[in-house]
Amino acid sequence: MTLTVPPTQLPPAPAVGRRGRPGRISTARRQEALTGYAFTAPTIVGFLVFVLGPLVAAIYLSLTKYNILTPPKFIGIDNYVRMFRDERLAQTYGNTVLYVGAAVVLINGFGLLFAVLINQRLPKALTYVFRSAYFFPYLVALVYVSIIWQALFQKDTGILNYYLTALGGEKIDWLNSSEFAKVSVIIVDTWRNAGFAMLIFVAALQEVPKDMVEAARMDGANEWQIFCRIVMPMISQATFFNITMTIIGAFQIYESIIVLTRGGPGDASRSVVMYIAEVAFNKFDMGYASAIAVTLFLIIMLVTLAQFRLRKSWVNNE
Amino acid sequence: MRTTIRATVAAAAATALLALTACGGTQSAGPANDDPYSAPAKDVTATISISNWGDPGDKVVYDGVAARFKEKYPNVTVNNNFTPITTWTEYVNKLVTQAAAGQAPDVINIATEGVELGLSNELFAPMDGFLKNDPQAKSLRENIDPKLLEGFSKSGSTYLMPNTFNTMVIYYNTKMFEAAGIQRPSDDWTWDDFLAIAKKLTTGSGANKVYGFAMPYYSFGITPWLYSNGTSMMSNDMNTAQLTDPKLQETVGWVRDLVTKHGVSPQPKGADPYQLFPAGKAAMTGAGHFVTGGFKAAGFADYDILPWPKGSTKSTVFGAGAFAISKTSKNPELSWEFIKMLTDQQTQKKWADAGAAVPSTKTAASSPEFLASPKHAAEFYNSLSYAKPVAAPRAYNVLDPAFMRAMDEIMSGQDIGTSLQRAQKDVQEALKQ
Q: Inter-chain contact A68–B397, Cβ cutoff 8 Å?
């Protein structure tokens, strides 16, 4: 909100003028300022109460021992030191990093693929059907669909294994083996989020100037070259947005795991946010849980900052 | 839906919210006094809140008690909060969170598993004053097996009144035993006898597969195997976890082999024994009395019970449900009156009929209604004589999930020693906190 004063109202001699007519200008300015603050107040209050407040509280609690029934006791950085010998934390962070990597590649890969397919010259109705179908998983509550996914993943009765064995493969214990529990989570996570990435990509693809593509075609570029040299750079902003969102989202992955495997077997598919929830609401070790939460916050922040730094080198700002 | 979704507020936000709401109300309306006890006047006006848990059958009993209480104290509002039970850990976590928010209920229903946790967090008020001075309490307690009362006292003070308990026994399908020509084994049967029978009864494949044994796959259900092999998850004083005890490892290996080696049990994840058994898909299962209500509702009656088979010793596990008065209750006398009603003979009889658990008084547990079904129903109360209480340290809410995590790993083929070692570390760390 810029408070520019029309030139006519400006005093001829600044110092004197300001002293001469202080009331009028400052009233106008103040009112304008107040209006501005009033408009931003809900956001600011929301930010203070729901973001900054909890963040400060979490940082404070991370330096204490606190079981929620007795008052917090200050213990310095003990909670942070403790993390280095916590094998479960190492495992859950490892899983989470794997989920993030898989999410970035698969969600954006499939999102882009679907978007390109939908962007072909198809009858309008068909485009609409496809777009809804791919976006649908993002709209339904995961808790309900997870029951269906669990059924699909069942070792003896699941449809996935039915086709696997029909094709001559071995039955896979999707939910109860240490390796495939993670794979199952990644499949459901990709299934759920690819539609959203697709929507962003579709919007960007429609903004790619047709004449530019036509010109390239006239110059003899094949479809693959057009895609790599023209389309990709033109939609790089959408790519950047999608990658950033999937990274942040995947670091906080929780729901899809808890409804599928509850983190098991053991900790094989547990994410760091699930571990934080367990430490906080099961062990009631709020101090330690807050400390882990703070590290997760810092990691997400650093990764996002790094992304914005790298942005200049590959994102087209035209 | 078993999954409790605590949403994604998990991290910072919730931590802070809890910090804001937590205010340990420590005012103690201690009922311990030496004056002769007199019940509150009939026209007293007050509100008391109850935290109860269980299945729909339990709820009927609790609602009945609340209605009876309303007749006695018409001006008292009873907030009868009922939690459909999933796991003990979840229920206890909910209680602790409520208490931390300064909203502890006046009357708390809790079981052996949560007692130490409640005591160490000072959730309960001692009941000694009432027990000593209220003649009704004395007659009620005399009718209860002392073993049930033991676990509910600490440093000479009693904090809880038991209402029901469960011991784990083996359920078997009488028709399937008959069809296979298997006699009911003696009460002193062993693990080997059990395995032989389970093998005989495992038949078919695909959709016609019938298992010899549907495994109760939760801490309380695995514990009888440990106890009957002379081991336990905790030391006797409840201060040390002993999940790496060689005997415990041996037992867990035996349990795993039922699935992976002998194939007499289905993979326990995703297989509900209490559906397989009444559906005739499993010839035996292990359970407390709590399944009989469901069997009755499903019209399944072809079963009887046996003591848990002997490993190196004859034993099984028991856990009792009990009521405590919250330390922060403003109406301890009314709460006490309510608890008396919850545990008196009339309610006990209802428990016996509802079939959710074994009533804690001998009178109710030996009533014809209770003994009517199954044929050897007397074993439920008798098994108390050799049963041991479920190992429930202060950190039970860590022990239970840690042990089951290890079990999941072991069932999925991971090394027994490594998995239990991890769980051991987790529990020891929590015990030190």
A: no
> ipTM > 0.90?
no
* Surface of B (142-201) touching A: CB under 8 A: none
Query: Mean pLDDT over residues B185-200, rounded?
Result: 95
Of the candidates B13, B398, B405, the beta carbon closest to that of A266 is on B405
> Which among B19, B430, B433 is the nearest to A57, CB-wise?
B19
How many whole angstroms separate alpha carbon B223 and alpha carbon B240? 17
If asked whether residues B270 and B407 sit together in one domain, one would say: yes
Give the tens place of pLDDT for each residue, B118-162: 888 788 999 988 888 888 888 788 888 888 888 788 888 889 998
Residues B196 and B116 in one domain: no
Residues 383-402 of B with CB under 8 A from A: 395, 397-398, 401
Q: What is the value of pTM for the model shown?
A: 0.81
Q: Options 1.10.3720.10, 1.20.1250.20, 1.10.10.10, 3.30.200.20; which CATH number does A81-314 get?
A: 1.10.3720.10
CB distance A58–B22 less than 8 Å?
A: no
